[in-house]
Amino acid sequence: MSFKDVYGHEEVIEFFQNVITNNNLSHSYVFDGLKGIGKKHFAINLSKAIFCKNNKVDACDLCDQCRKINHMNHLDFLIIEPDGKSIKNEQMKDLQEFLSYKPNESKKKIVIIDNSNLMTISAQNTLLKILEEPPGYALIIFISQNANKLLKTIQSRCQIIRFNPLRNEVIQKYLINEKKLNLEEAEFISNFSNGNFSKAYKAVEEKDFLDIRNQVIDYTNQLLLNKKIECIQDIGIFEKYKKNIELVFDIMIGWIRDILIVQTTNNYDIVINKDKIDIIKKQAYRLVDRNLIDSIEKIERTIKNIEMNVNFKLAIDYLVLEIIQVGGTS
User: Over the stretch 128-141, which tens digit does the pLDDT of each residue have?
Assistant: First the structure.
C-alpha cells in the first residue's frame, strides 16, 4: 500500500509529499480526527514513503524498507498502542529507550502512538521530556480522536494535522473497487458509514449485516413505540450481537436519525435507510422529535459506559428502561 492506495485525504497527501520533497519534516505531528477515518493507515503509509529507497514522495512497496514496514519488522519503526484502557508510563520509557539508539538501517526512527488521547498524565510527562529535546532522526506521530486530551505543552511542540471524515462518494468508490459491491450496496453502506471508513469496512465484513440491521431496526421501533412487553422479551438481541455491539448502536442511531431527518426537513436524499422510507414516514408522523433526540443521547451515553467497562447487562437494561420511560409517541 502507498499514498496512491489511500482513499480520500488528498490535501494531507499533497502536504506531506511537499514536506518530503523539501526535506522539511517536523519531529512530531498529531493526526487529529474522528475514529475510523484512516489516520493510522495514513501514518503507516507516510512512514513507508519516508523510508522507501526507490521513490522520493511515495512508497514503492518493492524495496526491503517498504516490505519490512508491510511485515511490521522494520528495526527503526515502532507502533505503540494502549495497554488495556490506557497508554502507560512504562510504554513511554520503552519509547525513550528505542529513540536513544541511532537508526539501524535508515536515516529516521519513526514512532506511531495510536489512540494517544488515552495516554496517562504520567506517560505524557515522560514523553514531554523527549519532545523538549528530540533526536534529529526522530519522528513521532500521535494518532488522536481528540487532541485536546493531550497536554498543552505537548500540543505546542507538535504540528497538528486535521483529518476530516471521508466523503460518501470516496467510501463508495472504495467499496466498489476493493470490495466488489454493486452500486446500490455501496451507496447504502457509504451512507450508513457517514464518512467513517472503519464503520463501512465492518459492515462489509459482517456477512449477516442486512439481517442484523433488520432485527435491530425492528427492536428500535418497539422501543420508540413503548412496546414494553416486546422490548423486555426481545432484549436478548443485545447479548446475541454483543461482539458487534458498536454496529448495533450505529444502526439504532442511524434509524432514529432518519426519522428525525424526515420529520424536521422532509429531505429524503440524506436518509440512510432509503429502502424503508415508508416505515420511516409513519414513524416520523407518530413520534416526538424531542424524545427521539433524548433516545440518541441515551444510546451515546451507553456506548461510553460500556467503553468504560460498566457491566454490559446493567448498561443495556438501563438503556432499554430509559428509552421506554421517555416515551416516543405524540
Answer: 999 999 999 999 99
